[in-house]
Design a protein that fits this description.
CATH architecture of the largest domain: Sandwich
Organism: Sphaerobacter thermophilus (strain ATCC 49802 / DSM 20745 / KCCM 41009 / NCIMB 13125 / S 6022)
Structural class: alpha+beta
InterPro entries: LpqE-like (IPR007410), Lxx211020-like (IPR058248), PCuAC_sf (IPR036182)
Bound molecules: copper (II) ion
Number of strands: 11
Pfam families: PCuAC (PF04314)
Strand content: 35-45%
Helix content: 10-25%
Largest sheet: 11 strands, mixed
Order of helices and strands: HHEEEEEEEEEEE
Radius of gyration: 27 Å
CATH superfamily of the largest domain: PCu(A)C copper chaperone
Number of domains: 2
Distance between the termini: 66 Å
Protein name: Copper chaperone PCu(A)C
CATH topology of the largest domain: Immunoglobulin-like
């Protein structure tokens, strides 16, 4: 269409007569309807699970734990950390827990969980549990968990998990707390974690 032919509204009116006005009035209403429909679709489309940057975080949960377990309530000496050999998280007064969840990545690029924070623990680390040659379960920090493009990462007992060290409050079954996960591509995502028995 030769837009240059329509130089002014007046000229358009002259060439198209009365028909121009109803059409012009209808158009803004139509645009508004489309916008409203898109807003409604967006609002209904979101699941209950956190979703951002293309990632989907499903069913975050954590083990129960106590802020001051047993006899170790006085071991606040940070130098204990040097001797912490994956089997005991000494050096912190609070107990431990771990967050588990499934992270799905429907996108075309791998993403990577690189860190996490929560105010219910003094230290948060990404861990992997493995069973050594003698059948003993061990765990230790890893630098991240890859969520492959078109795939998922399952953080679950006996595998990768988000370790909570030095609980600042008791985590009892039914409690909820928030945690923020840091992804290389998706950035920060905050989740609500429910405390339950494994
Ligand atoms: Cu751990």
């Amino acid at each position: 269409m030769m837009l240059s032919q329509v130089t002014t509204e007046k000229e358009w009116m002259v060439t198209h007569g009365k028909g121009w006005w109803p059409r012009a009035r209808r158009a803004p209403g139509l645009v508004l309807l489309i916008v409203l429909a898109l807003v409604a679709l967006t609002a209904c489309g979101g699941s209950e699970e956190a979703e951002a940057g293309g990632l989907r975080l499903d069913e975050p949960w954590a083990r129960p734990g106590l802020a001051s377990p047993g006899q170790s309530t006085m071991s606040h000496d940070e130098t204990d950390e040097a001797t912490d050999d994956n089997s005991a998280h000494g050096g912190h007064g609070g107990g431990t827990s771990a967050i588990f969840l499934t992270i799905s990545n429907p996108g075309n690029e791998d993403d990577r969980l690189v860190a996490a924070t929560t105010d219910v623990a003094e230290v948060v680390e990404i861990h992997r549990s493995t069973i050594d040659a003698s059948g003993v379960m061990r765990m230790g920090p890893i630098d991240g968990v890859t969520i492959p493009a078109g795939g998922k990462a399952e953080l679950k007992p006996g595998a990768e998990h988000i370790m909570l060290i030095g609980l600042t409050r008791d985590l009892e079954v039914g409690d909820r707390f928030s945690a923020t996960l840091q992804f290389e591509r998706a950035g920060e995502m905050t989740i609500e974690v429910e405390v339950r028995e494994p």
